[in-house]
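Objective 1b: paired records.
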Amino acid sequence: MTFRELALLFECGGDELVGVLSLPEREGGEVGVLVVVGGPQYRVGSHRQFVLLARHLAANGIPCMRFDYRGMGDATGEQRDFEQVQDDIRCAVDTMMERIPGLRGVVLWGLCDGASASCFYARQDDRVLGTMLLNPWVRTAATEARTYLTHYYWQRLRDPAFWKKLLGGGVLVGKALGGLLGTARKAGAARQGAGQDPVQSLPARMASGLASAGKPYRVVLSGRDYVAREFEQVAAGKPWAALEAIRDAVRLDEADHTFSTAAWRAEVARVTAEWVESMGREGAR
């Protein structure tokens, strides 16, 4: 199946947003995909991933739209972070539903803090049928400290090359020790629950959004990515433990945060198409 693309402008809060619809040549499925861009990026994505994803989906019968938030790319307005783009997502869903007759709803597809924004938005809109979350951004000072302590410093201490460099005078001992102790203090504070109301933390609010939405979601995690490691740590505890986020996660062991090779991007596109098609089949029953 081939596809066609349609560039369009739409309004949000008095500003003009730019989007691109990738459409199957023939009328496609009832479930489309809306790419929620992580910041600070625009509708093309790192390594043109969003362009390639949208075209792959459209070529397989799934409509897809990608767009610029206000203040990003070619959109007008002031730049916003991922916690302030709910109106932008709503306007994009409005536009996609208006432009594609017969569309039953959309899946929000978000990488990094695009995934975080999707968690916040999903419960607000009945037209959102599910969310696809790739390397979700859950960072707090505490999660960052725990992740670096576990996955960076511990691995360095186990690496013979580090000790060889240290004994050869190639490491600034005071600086390295200071970094380690500082990170350990932050991680210790996290264990004691210091620093932030756990109910209001970013990970807790994301989990609450997903739980209250009550819609299916799919998690994809990269193997060589500290953001994904942070998510794994968060998802092992409350309130994420009540969700099935990790147990069913798709893992690309060699991939980095932005899926920088053609093979990793192709695998993400394949997994996305497969999951969205399964949702379409469920809806048709």
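Objective 1b, second protein:
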Amino acid sequence: MADKPNSDQGLDTKFQEDPRFKVSHREAIIGIVIAVANFMWWFAFAYGLGSKPVEEYTYILGLPAWFFFSCVLGFVVFSCIVFLAVKFFYKEVPLDDDQGGGLK
């Protein structure tokens, strides 16, 4: 029969949240906001400009304007936003099981 740990054996029963969780949650929220904004951008241009009859389309670089703005320009804009978010808002977090809290 396995021994059950209890407070009499000197084990610390207090839960201490890892500070990396707070950083991870903040970065996850930033990622979700960027993903939702990217979808809204794509949806607005694709269905906003693309809902016209084909005869009324305008073209940019040989592509329909709705496709250019939603897919080509959207990719460039959101790639830059992701780069800037990672550069300025994300932190390097050690993934090892160091209890010393390695956040800098």
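The two ends are 44 Å apart (CA to CA). The helical segments are 19-49, 65-88.
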